[in-house]
Write a structure and sequence with these properties.
43% helix; alpha/beta; 389 residues; 10% strand; 18 helices; 4-stranded parallel sheet
């Protein structure tokens, strides 16, 4: 594996100067500036803390998968929440003065340094002692009773330990009314994944990408939603992986990305997607069926695997044979590149294959995952067997 591969570079302009793209190093400087009065503390959080940004599981600036720095702008943006100083609580004595502030301006006021209370009819909050605050909460909780108590937690900015303690407290109080924003975000995709794959979460890890020959993204903007994925994709490409993207929108971040923790990519950028399949909105189901139809027609299927591991495949094959290309196109099938050009990429002796159904709010994607045909189940099982080979 050579260190430099100019054919994969996004361009020769260092750091993509002048292009519309994330500016990671500017972000790092901005974070340093924002935290300038608490730099040792900020460094200690980054270097020794766990990340409260997402669930990838980092310890300090390392993860358990790859060597090198693990850090993304999500974590940098959250850093200020941990280092900000106490707000001037006099600002809370009359809330009418804060009405014109937006969310960011309100957050920038600072941290709440002690418990405060506002009674109905009062213009603002007044300081109370911790004992008073705890007594008040306890008295209200007792009066409401377990059936009328619920815990709701945000999905970002707190760590796994906070979730753990919250559910312990909820049980201690006798309620099982515990919910969080992550559950609400992912409820549609978990239902669809369960129906299609039998599991409520992804069946592979990012690590599986490194060593895959083919990675297919449907409806995903992975570099934007989770920037660290690009580092895994970079190393996957170094090992020869091809990346295909099926999306109604040509995501710029999947086209090319400047990965700050990889020197070559930080300077010259990396072309990520090898091919885009530009479908119409809602056309992903038709697209997948078109891929299967082409594979059936052109003999790109692993018949031995189908024989060993699938049920009802003949039914699927009959459906794909019966449906015409015109009919598929009528179901808002692809524009531009057609699905017929995907099968040569996935047919034949491909030893490893990762199929990424990104959990997103994109309803058509969720529909695709919940499609009653055995397509997804077949793709997932096929992927699992190929990966294990
Ligand atoms: S991807 Fe970003 S937010 Fe998620 S664990 Fe890593 S540094 Fe934290």
């Amino acid at each position: 594996m050579s260190w430099l591969n100019p054919r994969q570079w996004a361009g020769w302009m260092p750091h993509g100067l002048g292009q519309v793209k994330p500016h990671h190093f500017v972000d790092i400087l901005a974070t340093t500036w924002q935290n300038r009065f608490e730099l040792p503390f900020a460094w200690r959080i980054l270097n020794h803390g766990v990340c409260d940004g997402c669930a990838l599981g980092t310890s300090g600036m390392k993860d358990w998968t790859m060597d090198g720095v693990h850090l993304c702008t999500v974590r940098l943006h959250l850093l200020r929440l941990n280092t900000m100083s106490a707000l001037d609580t006099r600002r809370l004595s009359d809330l009418s003065t804060l009405r014109g502030l937006n969310g960011k301006e309100l957050r920038d006021l600072g941290r709440l340094p002690f418990p405060m209370r506002r009674r109905r009819g009062e213009p603002g909050f007044q300081r109370i002692s911790w004992d008073e605050a705890l007594d008040l909460v306890a008295e209200r909780a007792r009066r409401a009773g377990p059936r009328r108590i619920a815990f709701y937690l945000t999905s970002r900015g707190i760590t796994n330990e906070v979730y753990y303690v919250a559910q312990k407290v909820a049980r201690f109080l006798g309620t099982n009314n515990v919910d969080n924003s992550a559950r609400i975000c992912h409820a549609p995709s978990t239902v669809a994944l369960k129906a299609a794959l039998g599991a409520t979460a992804s069946t592979c890890s990012y690590k599986d990408w490194i060593g895959s020959d083919l990675i297919v993204f449907f409806g995903s903007d992975a570099p934007n939603n989770q920037p660290v994925t690009t580092k895994y994709l970079y190393y996957a490409k170094k090992r020869g992986a091809k990346i295909l993207v099926v999306n109604p929108f040509r995501e710029p971040g999947l086209d090319r990305y400047w990965i700050p923790s990889v020197l070559e990519s930080a300077v010259f950028g990396t072309k990520l997607a090898d091919a885009f399949f530009h479908i119409h909105t809602g056309g992903d189901r038709a697209f997948i069926n078109g891929v299967l139809k082409a594979l059936c027609q052109e003999g790109g299927l692993d018949e031995a695997f189908i024989e060993r591991h699938t049920t009802g495949f003949e039914n699927l094959r009959d459906q794909m044979t019966a449906v015409s290309w015109e009919e598929l196109k009528g179901r808002r099938e692809p524009r531009g590149r057609t699905c017929g050009s995907l099968p040569p990429s996935i047919a034949g002796p491909i030893p490893r294959f990762s199929c990424g159904a990104w959990a997103s709010h994109n309803t058509p994607s969720v529909w695709t995952m919940s499609t009653p045909s055995s397509t997804w189940r077949w793709l997932a099982a096929w992927s699992a067997e190929r990966s294990a080979a």
